[in-house]
Design a protein that fits this description.
Blueprint lengths: L1 E9 L2 H7 L2 H21 L3 E6 L2 E7 L10 H7 L2 H33 L7 E9 L1 E12 L2 E11 L1 H10 L6 E5 H6 L2 H4 L2 E3 L20 E4 L3
Length: about 220
């Protein structure tokens, strides 16, 4: 499947774990994960998993939508190209909303209760992802047996998105070249190319063989 991968990492959680009681730390991380999950869902995405103090989410995207069979979509989006762009900018807008909610919604509340302010780093890219089933999760309740497939996602794009997250400044977003190429000019103008350094970034581009280009926002 073609997916936009979004990796949201909480900044400074290790420092918080050294200075806060465990009850406060767990309250912060749980609240952070819940709020980020709500925003992902609001924009039509899905949370894949929680990794400590990070959230890994994804958006399904389609490049070959058939608008001839869907009059409502055809009338609303006008043409396929516009819809494709909107799919990717929607994921970018989701990430921007996450940062805005943390800065303007969550942090003022935390300040009232003497909690430290939160900041996040976000890494994003788009690519082909494999959906893999690892056996079945079996749950039994009285005489009822429920079997649910244990599903996970694997792919190069996930590794890239997680890695580029560490290169983002607090409350900023880093995206890969593939995603950058898909978004509209307005959103492209909010990103600047990051100078590639093999010592900290060694992912290569499939098309050029050189270092894979990444771009970062310049938010405060």
């Amino acid at each position: 499947m073609n997916l936009v991968i979004v990796h949201i990492d909480l900044v400074g959680s290790t420092k918080m774990s050294l200075s806060l009681p465990i009850e406060r730390l767990t309250t912060i991380i749980r609240s952070f994960a819940q709020q980020m999950s709500l925003i992902v869902s609001m924009y039509g995405g899905y949370v894949l998993k929680y990794i400590g103090d990070a959230v890994l989410a994804f958006f399904v995207v389609e490049d070959d939508l058939n608008f001839d069979k869907d009059e409502d979509k055809r009338n609303f989006y006008r043409d396929k190209d516009n819809f494709n762009v909107l799919q990717y900018t929607n994921a970018i807008n989701c990430a921007c909303t996450m940062i805005k909610i943390i800065k303007e919604g969550i942090n003022p509340i935390l300040n009232q209760y003497d909690y430290p302010e939160l900041k996040v780093r976000i890494g994003m890219d788009v690519g082909e992802i494999a959906v893999v089933q690892y056996g079945l999760d079996v749950e039994e309740y009285k005489e009822i047996v429920l079997k649910k497939p244990h599903i996970d996602l694997i792919g190069y794009t996930i590794s890239i998105a997680v890695k580029m997250t560490s290169l983002a400044k607090p409350n900023n977003i880093v995206i890969g070249q593939k995603l950058f190429d898909k978004i509209d000019t307005k959103h492209k103008n909010s990103f600047m190319q990051v100078i590639n350094n093999k010592d900290i970034w060694n992912y290569t581009s499939e098309s050029t063989g050189g270092l894979y280009n990444i771009y970062a926002t310049t938010m405060d």
